[in-house]
Amino acid sequence: MSVFMSAFADLVGALADVLHPLFQTASTAAAIVLFTALVRLAVHPLSRAAARGQKARTRLQPQIAELRKKHGKNPERMQKALMELHKEEKVSPLSGCLPSLLQMPAFFLLYHLFSSQKIGGAPNALLGHQLFDAPLGERWHDALAHGGLFGAQGLVYLGLFAIVAVVATFNFRRTKRQMTANPVTPTTGPDGQPVPGMGTMTKLMPLMSFATLFTVSVVPLAAALYVVTSTTWTAIERAVLYRDMSAAGTAMATAVQPGRRVRRSSV
Length: 267
Known about the structure:
The chain has about 270 residues and is mainly α. The chain has 10 helices and 4 strands; from the N terminus they run ααααββββαααααα.
């Protein structure tokens, strides 16, 4: 593990050296932002696949409702019919989880790197690097202890909080619009039956973006930069990939009106 962390520290240091002519003392912070962008770029194909899967699942809701009506009293037959439907439409129920899962190792690497006093048996030199006056290895409570909320270090965090608040508000409004346009968002399990508590979770989902404020306040500044950069990337990426969901939701609401038959579409 120490060898692996040493290699990762060398990678961050190498990126910082490349960026130093442009960012000077903030080059390590810039390297973390660049590293985050590279990670997100690497998983972007999976994000596109997840978007296609989400749109396909939304289009399948009328057919799932018909299956539930037909096989509601036979969970095994219902589950088999759902699996056949997903297989035929080439839709994976787990596709939406992969982008988030693949990003977690990168976050924990940064968290561990900037929380460790020693790397490979030697003092961790990266802890002394700063974003303006805020050390990358310290946290918000350290900034408050050195100058208070409006001190030099505190202002760095206020800037990050402002970015997170703007992104969270954008996500909140976009998610609310999307949920309004797509009231048939999946809340069922593999057997097609409603998942207990999923309705409440769906209602709270638009507020989840604001939880990033707490994360930024408790992790090392380096990890906070990763979170802020990744969250901003996600907001922009989802706005682009799901830009036609509102129109699709309106069309779907029309399609499921009584008396209309729903045609199946391929992904």
